[in-house]
Amino acid sequence: MPDIEGACGPYFRSGPRIAAAVRWHMTSRFDGRVALVTGASRGIGLAIAQRIVAEGGRVCLTGRKQDGLREAVDSLGGAPHAIGVAGKADDEAHQLSTVERVIGEYGRLDVLVNNAGINPAYGPLLDLDLGAARKTVEVNVIAALGWLRATHRAWLGAHGGAVVNVASVAGLRPATGIGLYGVSKAALIQLTAQLAVELGPSVRVNAVAPAVVKTRFATALYDGREEQVAQAYPLRRLGVPPDVASAVAFLASDDAAWITGQTLAVDGGVTLGGGV
Q1: Model's pTM, two decimal places?
Q2: Which of 23, 28, 161, 177 is positioned for an S-S bond with 110, CB 3.0–4.6 A?
Q3: Quick one: DSSP state of residue 175?
Q4: Catalytic (active-site) positions
Q5: What domains lie within the chain, and their CATH numbers?
Q6: Chain centre to alpha carbon of residue 92
Q7: In whole angstroms, what is the distance from residue 60 CA to residue 51 CA?
């Protein structure tokens, strides 16, 4: 369960009635709702799933490895709180069968979080293997569109809902060494805005753009020099998965009911100046 009182300190200090109202609201924003989170066996994806379940929702997690998914689902309390479906994020058959499974299991699908992403290519753009570049775009951009299309046709188109894409600050400005990853995330940010226009008013589409978050995926960006890297951040620390999960939960909930097409930088202030 998230630290609701810590996150809403001023409200809790203002009186027991307001405190109770905020506590109830924060722990029930996803009551009766179902979310699909891709790439959720660990890291940011799992933290997002944890936050949604903690606030009353039910979640389907996807990932490539069945064992990792099973452990993640167990950590969420198992059925009916969560289910896992293994497969490759850019496999259209996997997308369609997963969405079908969610509808069959829960009878609805209100929230899609496109979190799955890869970064197999490191270095200057002109030195990259073009096969790796194509795969990066397939998973980070085209797969996100595929997941949204599948969920829209199965549920969102008729019933409405919310989509949150997990982009990166590398999609907002150039980043040394991960240029192709940044290009794919810039495309995802533009995809977010375009789909917000096309799918409104019933479906809201937003994105978050994290800076360096302490996960296995990002280890190469800070391993052995975390304090040095953190000096570029006004908040003087790197992110942790719950930082991103909180922002995603906000954008996916009715608290963001008048927000669409936006990309929220979850970055400790690093985009105000300094390096990624």
Answers
A1: 0.89
A2: 161
A3: -
A4: 181
A5: 1-30 (no CATH), 31-268 (3.40.50.720)
A6: 20
A7: 13
